[in-house]
Design brief:
The protein is mostly beta strands. 0% of the residues lie in helices and 40% in strands.
């Protein structure tokens, strides 16, 4: 996801973002939280039904979820067993992405439109 010029305002006072020498520089926020030092990427084509939960080890500190073609339904798990409520990521809104500080131990995704192909990428910053 490239941001050129302007400002991006996200969750909980993320603050303005600027582009410096090919890198995205974000101001720090929620200093009581752990600052991520690595990431794990998951990608694929979403199915028409929710598959089994994909377990994140270790739990995420930040999540970036993106879709390009079709709307994507996502359910996150904070304990790796039970799910939070479903939410939708639409490819034509918010650059087709969802970026939040969220401690997740798992996730599952599905197409919002059965038979369509919703390509997705989830980056768990740890």
């Amino acid at each position: 996801m490239a941001i050129a010029g302007g400002a991006y305002f996200g969750y909980r006072g993320l603050g303005a973002a600027g582009v410096l020498v090919g890198r995205l520089q974000l101001s720090l926020w929620e200093m009581e939280g752990k600052i991520p030092t690595g990431n794990v990427t998951y990608d694929g084509n979403a199915l028409d039904n929710y598959p089994l939960i994909t377990v994140l080890r270790p739990a995420s500190e930040l999540l970036l979820i993106q879709t390009w073609d079709e709307s994507l339904a996502v359910m996150l798990s904070q304990d790796g067993v039970t799910y939070q409520d479903e939410f939708e990521i639409h490819p034509d809104k918010n650059w087709g992405s969802w970026f939040h500080r969220y401690s997740a131990k798992g996730f599952t995704v599905k197409n919002m439109t059965p038979g369509a192909t919703a390509r997705y990428q989830i980056v768990a910053f740890i």
